[in-house]
Structure formats: structure tokens, C-alpha cells
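Re: that chain you flagged

S.,

Sorry for the slow reply, it's been a week of failed gels. I finally had a moment to sit down with the sequence you sent. For the record, here it is as I used it:
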Amino acid sequence: MKLDLKQIAREPGSVLPFSYDLDMTGLEVNGCRPVTKPVRVEGRVRNMAGAMLLNAVMGTTLSLNCDRCNKPFTREKTVEYETLLAAELEDEENDDIVLLDRDGQLDLDELLGDVFILELDTKNLCSEDCKGLCAGCGADLNEEPCRCKREVDPRLAKLAQLLERDH
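Prediction finished late last night. Pasting the C-alpha cells below so you have them in one place:
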């Protein structure tokens, strides 16, 4: 979606609201497609005495696999974003300001899509106390105990044999 900001750029105090669905269902992260529903975007651009301020809130439900136990789960994801907009920059090193194109338009899909991607978590857990899978036997430690046999330190092997005889 492109926003035409020429009109509000000329009128201090004016506001341009926007609301739409951003399709990010094609996004692939680590071989999975976490965005199964469109991302709902709502926001506004406000001209504050010549400086334009963009506020946006994006939200959707993500379909993820737990990074510890690999079980599928869903999680609500909401991203809030705010930035200044400008038609041109006086200081080329200012990375905090987003530039409009030559026609005074802003491509919201590109800008907010990038912001949403950067806000995705690098680690996804079904719960904070997820125990994960045993590296040895593969048991889901949330549902069952580990099935691995304890390996005895070779230096203590003779002592382990003595303890086994006593039982």
C-alpha cells in the first residue's frame, strides 16, 4: 500500500489515518512459514509543524514450532512502530528518518514488512519452562522422563560394579 503524503505535508496539524491487511504469508523463516494470516496494520501519519510522524501497530497470529520440543503452537504477535518521515535529508547520516519517494509517497508494505520481520523472535518456545527433547534418547522431557542409561565414568567403573552387586 502506498500513502500519498503530498497533501498533509503542506498542512501542519493534518492527519492521514490508514488501515489495511499486509500479506506476509509467503515469508519463510528457517524453513517454516510463521505468518499464516494477513498482518493487520493500523496507524496514522501526522504533520507536526513540518515534521511528519508515522505511528503504526501491526498484529497477527503466528504459527510456530517450539525450538526446544518441536511441537507446533500459535502466538499473538504485535509490533508498534514510530518514525519520522521526510521528503529529503539535510544530514545524510541520519538513519532514524524514512525518506519518501520523489512523488511524495511512502510504500508502507516495504517499510512495515521489514519492521515486522526484524521484530520476529529469534527463539520461539511453547512455554518458558519447556524442557525440550533429550539429546540422547529423543524423549519429550515435558511428557516423560529420559530413557537413556547413565554412562559411568570409566575411572569409577569398578565402584559401580560393587554397587550393582549390593542391589
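What I noticed first: The mean pLDDT is 86.

Talk soon,
D.
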